[in-house]
From TrEMBL:
It comes from Thalassococcus arenae. Residues 7-132, 151-270 form the VOC domain. Pfam families: Glyoxalase. It comes from the Bacteria. PANTHER family: RING-CLEAVING DIOXYGENASE MHQE-RELATED. InterPro entries: Extradiol_RC_dioxygenase, Glyas_Fos-R_dOase_dom, VOC_core. PROSITE patterns: VOC. This is VOC family protein.
Length: 309
């Protein structure tokens, strides 16, 4: 069993437009845009990162906004919901705020004894706010600090029965422990994690999902450094998983593998962080390009949709 996993590092999804995506996460949810860069493999597409003041692992939602992308189809083999943590008593504020911004899908519910408010993002993305005891400090430039989002709480994997069973075994191997069951949902948590330390598996017989705008592309798990990442990679390879070589993503190092339920997993380092190429007071302001694309800056800037902050 692995002991290096701290919880979630980031969640990366697809969107149909950069401006609407930026406005939703910064002006509605009140997160800080901590990096404005591009997709390594498609440099004419942004990679936008939103999180707390520093982009602390466990707080960062990231997006590839492909202009005009077709909306995804929900189903099995996907991350169906991303949950954010807010303080106890904050949901009344968020109900009013999200309704004021005409956010779709507002629904109050309870899971594992915690009050939740479900809602939809601009592309139909599935989100919930969860009231929980969370001592992380939020980015509070837009939303009052006493109700602001602290970071991730959990994600929900919607899987068919076979994928659910196999993914549960994988999570146990990754150091997660089964914490409880509610209906068709089983919760796993990594002991002593980073507060973004829970994963829910929802077992269902639905048809397979189709990825598109509003779909989660992958979820990333946090490890402290590259040495821990190499230990995780070796253990996964020894267990039979097909794992990529270590890839430099500028702000972290990453490895990827496909989970048994079909969800793409990443293991990302907490180092070096988002302030490696920007002052912490100005994160996310300038367009930052990977070194191999810097010589294409003039062309890339012409192709990218302007973002008005």
């Amino acid at each position: 069993m692995l002991t290096q996993i701290n919880g979630l590092h980031h969640v990366t999804s697809l969107a149909s437009g950069a401006q609407a995506n930026n406005d939703f996460f910064t002006k509605v949810l009140g997160l800080r845009r901590v990096k404005k860069t591009v997709n390594f493999d498609a440099p004419d597409v942004y990679h936008l990162y939103y999180g707390d003041a520093a982009g602390t692992p466990g707080t960062v939602m990231t997006y590839f906004p492909f202009p005009g992308a077709k909306r995804g189809r929900s189903g099995t083999g996907e991350v169906s919901t991303t949950a954010f943590s807010v303080p106890a008593g904050a949901l009344e504020y968020w109900q009013d705020r999200l309704a004021e911004h005409n956010v779709a899908g507002l629904e109050h519910r309870d899971r594992f004894g915690q009050a939740q408010l479900a809602f939809r993002g601009p592309d139909g993305d599935g989100f919930v706010l969860v009231e929980s005891e969370d001592r992380r400090h939020p980015w509070a430039a837009t939303v009052p600090e006493d109700v602001a989002i602290r970071g991730f709480h959990s994600t929900e994997l919607r899987l068919d029965p076979r994928g659910a069973d196999a993914s549960a075994e994988l999570l146990r191997f990754m150091g997660y422990e089964a914490e409880g069951r509610q209906g068709n949902v089983m919760r796993f948590r990594v002991p002593g994690g980073n507060a973004a330390d829970a994963i829910d598996i929802a077992r269902t017989d639905a048809a397979p999902a189709g990825q598109g705008a509003g779909s989660v592309h992958h979820i990333a798990f946090s490890v402290t450094n590259r040495a821990a990442q190499l230990d995780v990679r070796k253990a996964l390879l020894d267990t039979g998983y097909q794992v990529t070589p270590v890839i430099d993503r500028d702000y972290f190092w990453a490895i990827y593998f496909r989970s048994p339920g079909g969800v793409l997993f990443e293991v990302a380092t907490d180092e070096p962080g988002f302030d490696r190429d920007e002052d912490s007071g100005h994160l996310g302001e300038a367009l930052k390009l990977p070194g191999q694309h810097e010589h294409l800056r003039a062309r890339i800037e012409q192709l990218l949709e302007p973002i008005r902050d």
